[in-house]
Each structure stands twice: as structure tokens, then as C-alpha cells.
Amino acid sequence: MHMSTSIRVDEDTKERLERMKHRDETWSEFLDRLATDAGTMEAGAWEGTEKAKKAREGIKRSRESFQ
Q1: CA-CA distance, 49 to 65, in Å (whole number)?
Q2: CA–CA separation, 19 vs 52, rounded Å?
């Protein structure tokens, strides 16, 4: 049995994701592909950039939400 969930994103993010998504794939397939592709990133790829700081903040907020 497959479970379903909703992920809230702002309109700008949704528009960027829609441009990346292939027409013939579901949102689930797209996000799986995106997550798999992201898994190939080199360690420290964002180090020294604003993205590194934002990623750390996002991880911190995510962990806090489960406590």
C-alpha cells in the first residue's frame, strides 16, 4: 500500500519545480529522480555559499519540528 503526503511550497518554488519536471512523470517520480540526482553531490559542494547556511538552517528546523 502506498501512502500519500502533501508538501507545501511557495509559488516561486512550485514554478521552478514544474519547469524541471518531465511531462510524462508524476510528481512522485519527479521528486524521486530529483532526490536520487541530489544524492550524487560531492560533500562540501555548497560550503562557503549562502546555500550551505540555508541548508543547515533547514536541517535544524526540520529536526526541531520532530522533537
Answers
A1: 25
A2: 24
Provide the residue type at 1 as one letter: M
Block residue for cell numbers 508524476: 26
Look up residue 46 and give its three cell numbers: 555548497
Question: Which ranges in 1-67 belong to alpha helices (H)?
Answer: 11-20, 27-38, 50-65
pLDDT in tens, 9-42: 999 999 999 999 999 999 999 988 888 876 555 5
**Which is it for the CA torsion 2, 6, 60, 58, positive or negative?**
positive
